[in-house]
Amino acid sequence: MTIARNAPSQCSQAKLREMITSYFVSRAIFVAARYDIATRLIHGPKTADELATALSVHAPALYRLLRALASAGIFREDEFGRFANTEMSEYLRDDVPDSLRGITLLFGDETSWKCWEDLLYCVETGKPSFDRLYGEPFWDYLSRNPAKAAMFDQAMVSASMMANDAIVSAYDFSGVGTVVDVAGGIGSTLCAILDAYPRIRGILLDLPHLAERARKCIDERGLSQRCEFRSGSFFDSVPEGAEIYFMKHIVHDWDDERCLRLLRNCRRAMGSQGKLLVCERVTPPGNEPSPGKWADLHMLVHTQGGRERTQAEYAKLYDEAGFLLSRVIPTESAWSLIEGIPV
C-alpha cells in the first residue's frame, strides 16, 4: 500500500520540480540564439572550442551550455565531442521557414524577462510590471527605442510566418473585393492572402514608422499594384468600404475599453455586408491546458489590460461593438479566426 500511494506522489513531485526549473532551459536557448550557434553549424559539426574561438567566449562554459541543450534535443553531441544541429535547433536559424529565432530573442530580452521577474507585483496590484520597470507603457517605449522596436517587429514577422499559411487555408476569401489589414505591421499576412487570391485588393494600415519597411515587403512580393500602405492609428479611424477588416495578434494587446474603440471604428467603416475577422488564441475555460493561459500572463506583465480571451469574452466584446460573433474557425496553428458580422 505504501508503494502504491507514494508512486503517484513521487511522479507529481518530479513533474513539479521540472516546471520549477523550466527557466533553465529557456535561458540556455536564448544564449544559443543570441550567438546564432545553429547558423554556425550549417556546414557541419563543430567542437565547443571551435565555436568559442569564433564567438570569443569561454570554451568550457560553452561546452556545458551545449551539452545541456543537447540533452533536451536542441543540438546533438557526437562521439568526438562535436555538436551538430537537430530538427529543433534548425528553428533557431533566421533563414529557415517558420524560424523561432526572432521569438526567442524577444522573449529572452530583458524587456520580457525582467517583467516576469516582477510577476508578484502584477498579481498584487493588477498593473503591468513593464510600466514600473521602464517608466512608460510598452508601445511608447518601442516608439523611442528603434533597436528594440526592430527586434519586436522581427519577432512578429516570425510569428506571422507560422500562422499565414494556416489562415489562408482555413478561411475562404473568395468573392472578397478588399481586405483591410488593421495594424498589419509590414504586411506579411496580407501579402499571403493576396498571393492566394489574385482578385483581392489590400489596404495595410499601421503607424508611420513602418511605412518604408511595409512598402518594401509589398514591392518584393510583386503586389504594389494591388496593395497600398496607409499611415494612421486604428484608435482614430480605419479605411472605409472594405469587405473584410482583418486583425492578427492585435485585440489581445488591449483592455476591453480600447478594444471597443477599435472594433467600433471597424463597424463604422464597413458596409452592411462587411465582416470582421480577428486572428487570436481562444482560451478554453476550466482546467484544460492551453498555451494561451500562459500567454495571458505575459500580457498581464507587459501591457495595460491586454489579455487572452475565451469565446464567451469575445462574443461579449463583439456584441458591445455592434457585431454578432458568427463563428470561430480553428486553424492548423495555435490561433483561431473569430468572425463577426455587423448587426
Write the layout of secondary structure elements.
Blueprint: H1 2-20, H2 22-34, H3 37-40, E1 46-47, H4 48-55, H5 59-71, E2 76-77, E3 82-84, H6 101-108, H7 110-117, H8 119-125, H9 129-134, H10 138-144, H11 146-170, E4 178-182, H12 188-196, E5 201-206, H13 211-220, E6 227-231, E7 244-248, H14 256-269, E8 275-280, H15 291-302, H16 311-321, E9 323-330, E10 336-342
Parallel strand pairs: 4-5, 4-7, 5-6, 7-8
Antiparallel strand pairs: 1-3, 2-3, 8-10, 9-10
Helix pairs in contact: 2-5, 2-6, 4-5, 6-11, 11-12, 14-16
Beta content comes to: 5-15%
Query: What would the average pLDDT be, to the nearest integer?
Result: 94
CATH topology of the largest domain: Rossmann fold
Strand order of the largest sheet: 6-5-4-7-8-10-9
CA-based shape: globular
Which consecutive residue ranges, at least 5 long each, have pLDDT under 50?
none
What helical percentage do the residues reach? Answer: 40-55%
- How far apart, in Å, are the first and last alpha carbons? 63 Å
Biggest sheet descriptor: 7 strands, mixed
CATH architecture label of the largest domain = 3-Layer(aba) Sandwich
Number of helices: 16
